[in-house]
């Protein structure tokens, strides 16, 4: 059951593509994950830089994360509605425009040394990234048969892991080295380069031709898989629980990375530059783990992979909170390894079987990235009060949600497969099989009521 799909050999959504066209479209959209990862990799080191430069508390510094990840809560659903109206390509161009504008805004913020300028810049660039993630995650998921969705998205997001490693490495060589240790000059040039990357991608997508995958195409794909569900997206339990899982997971992931530098400088005696470089090694681990773990989704049920990796993150976050020093650092390497496939696997599971609601569902799932806006604040307050090491109890709680969702989705997917199989037997081999999920759930509700009535009648007789 690769990719979490109920059915196999289901047609891809949208127009028929040659293998070459499919690979080109995949590679082009995957390049967006590089832009996202680079910005994300820089924000954690920027957090440490502003604490030192402006002399603010750890809790105050998390306002950057609140702005950066809060933008996903504000902008993801509008971006999905824009995509439904104008298509994926127009949405990508809008996202890249905001990405460039936000990156350029860091220049005057650093020049005038205004902390709230950094906060506003982070919000604008993140609005662009929220748009790009909504477009790219959804597009990759439907660019091919649904049973391969988890594999495709994990492979595309490996680009994210590559650039997330480069971000802290670049920052460690520029933000804290030499004369830049006490100034913000290097930061201006780094974000100018980020803006240039965004502009280059804008030009590329402006002239490139992407297949136009419409809501009707995705509805046809859902029907061909044997599922018809007319309920609006907010009534799909697997999607809404997926949103909550993303909210807790991203919050835990962001919070873990945001305080690594403080953890290493306080418990392991490292300098800020050394800690930043160690963060880049942790991101390398994340990148390698994503490449290494993605093939597992070809051979193992993605629900079980998600549950196993979520459990691993939970256990080793607790280990980091209770130890410190080299043992804590080893625990972080295992946490970053285990984080590798959680986000894209949750995304594909939660947006499966949505049909024409796929783009809107993608927007809701990307809203879950907003968890990165409040988890760091909670951990920052905990760290200021009790210490950075023990504050890793906070992300541990977030990671546990992934383990529960993976286990729950395993039974949900088995139930979906049984519904289709039962309908196939009733319909016969010559009749197309389409399971009306809404009707079947109503039948189950009626059966439950009848059972309850029988039970009450028996009790009344007694």
UniProtKB/TrEMBL annotation:
One of its GO terms (cellular component) is plasma membrane. Its main location: membrane. It holds the Pfam family MFS_1. It is found in: Cell inner membrane. The chain crosses the membrane at residues 23-43, 63-83, 90-109, 153-176, 188-208, 241-263, 299-322, 328-350, 362-378, 390-412. It is a multi-pass membrane protein. Keywords: Cell membrane, Membrane, Transmembrane, Transmembrane helix. InterPro entries: MFS, MFS_dom, MFS_trans_sf, MFS_TsgA-like. Residues 25-418 form the Major facilitator superfamily (MFS) profile domain. GO terms for molecular function: transmembrane transporter activity. PANTHER family: L-FUCOSE-PROTON SYMPORTER, PROTEIN TSGA. This is BY PROTMAP: gi|472586214|gb|EMS23742.1| L-fucose transporter [Rhodosporidium toruloides NP11] gi|647397700|emb|CDR40936.1| RHTO0S05e09230g1_1 [Rhodosporidium toruloides].
């Amino acid at each position: 059951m690769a990719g979490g799909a109920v059915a196999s050999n289901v047609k891809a959504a949208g127009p028929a593509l040659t293998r070459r066209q499919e690979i080109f479209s995949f590679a082009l959209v995957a390049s967006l994950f590089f832009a996202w990862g680079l910005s994300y990799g820089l924000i954690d080191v920027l957090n440490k830089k502003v604490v030192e430069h402006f002399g603010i508390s750890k809790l105050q510094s998390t306002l950057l994360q609140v702005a950066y990840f809060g933008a996903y809560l504000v902008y993801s659903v509008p971006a999905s509605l824009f995509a439904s109206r104008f298509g994926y390509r127009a949405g990508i161009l809008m996202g890249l425009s905001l990405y460039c504008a936000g990156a350029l805004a860091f220049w005057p913020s650093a020049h005038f040394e205004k902390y709230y300028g950094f906060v506003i810049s982070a919000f604008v660039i993140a609005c662009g990234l929220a748009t790009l993630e909504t477009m790219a995650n959804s597009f990759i998921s439907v660019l091919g048969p649904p049973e391969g969705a988890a594999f495709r998205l994990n492979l595309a997001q490996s680009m994210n892991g590559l650039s997330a490693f480069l971000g802290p490495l670049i920052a460690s060589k520029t933000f804290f080295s030499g004369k830049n240790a006490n100034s913000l000059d290097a930061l201006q040039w780094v974000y100018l380069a980020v803006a240039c990357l965004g502009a280059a991608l804008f030009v590329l997508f402006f002239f490139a031709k992407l297949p136009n995958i419409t809501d009707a195409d995705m509805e046809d794909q859902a029907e061909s898989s044997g599922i018809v569900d007319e309920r609006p997206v907010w009534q799909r339990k697997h999607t809404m629980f997926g949103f909550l899982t993303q909210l807790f997971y991203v919050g835990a992931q962001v919070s873990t990375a945001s305080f690594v530098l403080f953890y290493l400088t306080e418990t392991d005696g490292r300098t800020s530059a050394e800690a930043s470089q160690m963060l880049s090694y942790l991101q390398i681990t994340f990148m390698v783990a994503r490449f290494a773990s993605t093939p597992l989704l070809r051979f193992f049920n993605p629900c079980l992979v998600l549950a196993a990796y979520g459990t691993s993150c939970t256990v080793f976050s607790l280990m980091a909170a209770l130890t410190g020093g080299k043992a804590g650092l080893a625990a972080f390497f295992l946490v970053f390894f285990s984080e590798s496939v959680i986000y894209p696997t949750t995304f594909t599971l939660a947006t499966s079987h949505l049909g024409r609601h796929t783009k809107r569902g993608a927007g809701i799932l990307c809203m879950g990235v907003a968890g990165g806006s409040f988890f760091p604040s909670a951990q920052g307050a905990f760290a200021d009060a009790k210490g950075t090491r023990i504050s890793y109890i906070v992300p541990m709680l977030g990671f546990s949600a992934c383990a529960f969702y993976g286990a729950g989705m395993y039974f949900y997917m088995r139930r979906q497969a049984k519904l289709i199989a039962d309908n196939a037997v009733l319909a016969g081999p010559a009749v197309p099989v389409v399971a009306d999920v809404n009707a079947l759930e109503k039948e189950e509700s009626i059966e439950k009521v009848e059972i309850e009535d029988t039970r009450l009648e028996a009790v009344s007789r007694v």
